[in-house]
Amino acid sequence: KFAKITLDRDFRISRIDKRIYGSFIEHLGRAVYTGIYQPGHPTADEAGFRKDVLDLVREIGVPIVRYPGGNFVSNFYWEDSVGPVAERPRRLELAWRSTEPNLVGVNEFADWSKKAGSDIMLAVNLGTRGIDAACNLLEYCNHPFGTKYSDLRISHGVKDPHDIKVWCLGNEMDGPWQTGHKTALEYGRLADETAKAMKQIDPSIELVVCGSSNTGMPTYPQWEATVLEQAYDDVDYISLHTYYGNRFHDTANFLAQSDDMDHFIKTVISTCDFVKAKKRSKKDMMLSFDEWNVWFHANEEDDDTMKNRPWSVAPALLEDHYDFEDALLVGLMLITLLKHSDRVRMACLAQLVNVIAPIMTEKDGPAWKQTIYYPYLHASKYGRGVALNTALRASRHDTMDYSGVTDVESAAVWNDEEEELTIFAVNRDLQEEIVLESDVRSFEGYELLEHIVLAHEEMTAVNSAQTQAVLPKSVTGWDGLESGFLSSRLPKASWNVIRLK
Ligand code: AHR
């Protein structure tokens, strides 16, 4: 078994848009209530936001957070979420069969985002509403003053506009589960007309149009083509969503699913470029992979809760308890995003707190880190700069659904400002250690700074509020650097971050 990469300053994929390390907070389950917001918790600040959660979010460095949904947005009445809290209505929330108390809304979330050091990617409701509600919300958020909705914002105590730059035109509109689900043509027309009106209000914004909810949708990828034929000129990104799981307890097959993500991205790029050619357009459509993660552990429990429980505020939903192998796949998915950083300009790990999340909270206790927290942290922290083509050559294996799966996957990022080079590598062989040989002659004078490894004997090992069983460690003596050739030991089934400076 072998793995070889060649890294050169001139083999550039692209300068990485830091927004690929974005995440997502939806009004779903305990993401908001008892997640980011819990007045009365010992760590709550004056606004009711949990400082223990904010600390963990800031530690990762999350450049952008998508809000308020997700499926939630397709029946979201934004006006209910602003103004004096005591006057806000409680609403039936259709997507997750919950009661929405509207204690946190657009202005509170903007406040939280500032504290977290994140920008907002705000979604508008194109399910039960349309152009008017989207325009009014934009006017409320971004117009300085002197109009109905900007003055309404000011009357709510928010003098300065939020100046939100990225807006999603609805959510997963191809899905029959979506409130206000549409055909591609219906949605493409509505998205385009909404885009044009929104850009009249604020030409500086960027817009994300909905692609398919996943590659299994019967309308994929014709959905992308039809929607873009309508909206190509007026939008800036098309969204991609995917979630993977290990339903058949087949780890090798599970870890091969980042190859599916790679194929998905390539197909969407091809579809965008097909429409570009048809339209004789000069513009490249960029990709926003604004929902990605592992999601399957809590499915059965959630089905039961959604059917058999009365309407309630913030029921525990989608609380996947991630294990060690999930962290490996999350690492592999991050590598895949980096490999496509020339076209994938934004991405959101879905989600951030309590709901399919790297950060969990105990209602009467601390916030804690799930296994998947770590690859996300490492990529966001060390994956800034220029993505390099690694020219990977590696031995391969086949799995139940995939063939020619490389035993090792790798991405490399050169932080040209800090003069640092980081290699991210996953050994997805379950039996053997593999030595990664890296030709780094182009980085003369660089020395090994650190090799961080996340490994565990048990694929099913998990973290909890009490223990961090899956924890990265810095290892020494695992790497040798001689005359520009680096060799690094990658233990079986491991996530590795090798840093040079
Ligand atoms: O992230 C959870 C849900 O997954 C989102 O609400 C929806 O967009 C997707 O189906």
**Total E-strand runs:** 26
Number of helices: 11
Report the end-to-end length measured between terminal Cα atoms: 28 Å
Shape: globular
> Strand order, biggest sheet?
3-4-7-8-9-10-11-12
Tell me the helix content. Answer: 25-40%
Mean pLDDT: 98
Radius of gyration: 23 Å
**Hetero groups:** alpha-L-arabinofuranose
Q: What share of the residues does DSSP label as strand, in percent?
A: 15-25%
Structural class: alpha/beta
Largest beta-sheet characterization: 8 strands, parallel, barrel
Low-confidence stretches: none
Pathway: Glycan metabolism
Protein name: non-reducing end alpha-L-arabinofuranosidase
Keywords: Carbohydrate metabolism, Glycosidase, Hydrolase
Domain Alpha-L-arabinofuranosidase C-terminal: 290-494
State the gist of this model:
By secondary structure, the chain is α/β, with parallel strands linked by helices. It has eleven helices and 26 strands.
